Amino acid sequence: MRNIKLIIQYDGTKYRGWQKLGDSDKTIQGKLEDVLSKMTNEKIELIGSGRTDAGVHAFKQVANFHTESKMSEEDMLDYLYRYLPQDIVVTEVVEVDERFHSRYHVKGKKYLYRIWNAKRHNPFLRKYCTHVPEPLDIDLMRKAAEYLVGEHDFSSFTSLKSKNKSKVREIFSIEIKNDNELVEIMFHGDGFLYNMARIMAGTLIEVGAGRMDADSIPEILARKDRSLAGPKAPCSGLILYDVEY
Amino acid sequence: MRNIKLIIQYDGTKYRGWQKLGDSDKTIQGKLEDVLSKMTNEKIELIGSGRTDAGVHAFKQVANFHTESKMSEEDMLDYLYRYLPQDIVVTEVVEVDERFHSRYHVKGKKYLYRIWNAKRHNPFLRKYCTHVPEPLDIDLMRKAAEYLVGEHDFSSFTSLKSKNKSKVREIFSIEIKNDNELVEIMFHGDGFLYNMARIMAGTLIEVGAGRMDADSIPEILARKDRSLAGPKAPCSGLILYDVEY
């Protein structure tokens, strides 16, 4: 059996997220498995590095599957480009060691959260940014972000639905860039709990808008209470930016 | 009567262009007139700086209308932002001299044509760029563009449907920027014939891809024969970038 790794870009606007549900056509994984199964004449099960929610995008998602197909990497790339819908593009196909596992072997991930910070939304970026009309104080957001960096129990920053046993994760860095109306927050960590990137972004937006105190973050972390952190920021601003192995 | 000028941004993907047709809901002008008429309780006729084709975008379209409404500019701006669909945003409302006319008084226009020049398309830019898979020689495109600059009869660069009497226009400049996969062509001129920006872009793409000779442009202009220029480039790459008075 060959083990094939894919690098995938997608515009998640029209999908119910990565994870396959009953109606496979509406998820990224389902759509990919359909095309891969036709390509190989096998029933392909695709292992993703992790889920992304409905409406969340990916610059670089990683997945792998096992196959007995003898098709070349280049031919697979061409086939996938031809038969996938326009909002999903496989940018790399590489045969990897049989032991490689897209989810278990993740060492780090980057999530980018993009905000259009102006009184009115931008018609071109509305699906790829979150619109925040209140002026944001970027320095306060950076101050709050510093408290989130490091190894913490992120129970306050994950949805109650989360079933992960340990809520401890390490955030390596949070960088906030501001170019006129566009504010970009890059989260880099060893892993992210369910909804964690969106809740961190939502909390930083609350701080930037002056509705939460930057210095309240340490206590929010310590209390392990989801109700203390900010709201989950909208899906449209979130992009799975990179997966590291 | 007051004369009100609007600055409008739109994502043209879902529309049949600027110009009102029978089904007003599917054109930018129709959509704006509907909302303006409700706002003022009058039958508003909106004068645009010019048409844009189906699927073409605008960073800055200009239009004006006459009204007896006493509503403030700021209240109009808020009303329009609230009731227009998300892909049309009025960014400025200004009361102007009664003689101002959005179309007759145009002194210059800028059109931006955007190309994603890579083997595979980009899922995030596919609606706002044209995908050209063949490598483009930017220097050859710049050479061809120089021949288009100046005052010329652009009969070879307009669709046969064009009913403008004079086909003479002045192109002030054509600037081509190249940032990795993104190629941007900015056309600046005193006016553009029907489909002229798209046919110039299509011709420059042919030159860049090596299918036409940059030095053939002077003869194409001189022959006044539409069949000699390149194809009309796709609508998705074209953006009405600015209108000058």
Can you put this structure into words, describing what you see?
- The structure is a homodimer of 245-residue chains.
- In chain A, α1 crosses α2.
- Helices cover 22% and strands 30% of the residues of chain A.
- Chain A contains five helices and ten strands, in the order βαββαβββαβββααβ.
- The first copy, chain A, is globular, with a radius of gyration of 19 Å.
- The longest helix of chain A has 13 residues.
- Chain A has two domains: 95 residues, 2-Layer Sandwich (Alpha-Beta Plaits), CATH 3.30.70; 137 residues, Pseudouridine synthase I, catalytic domain, C-terminal subdomain (Alpha-Beta Plaits), CATH 3.30.70.
- Chains A and B meet through β4 of A and β4 of B.
- Chains A, B: This is tRNA pseudouridine synthase A.
- Chains A, B: GO terms for molecular function: RNA binding; tRNA pseudouridine(38-40) synthase activity.
- Chains A, B: It is an enzyme of class 5 (isomerase).
- Chains A, B: Homodimer.
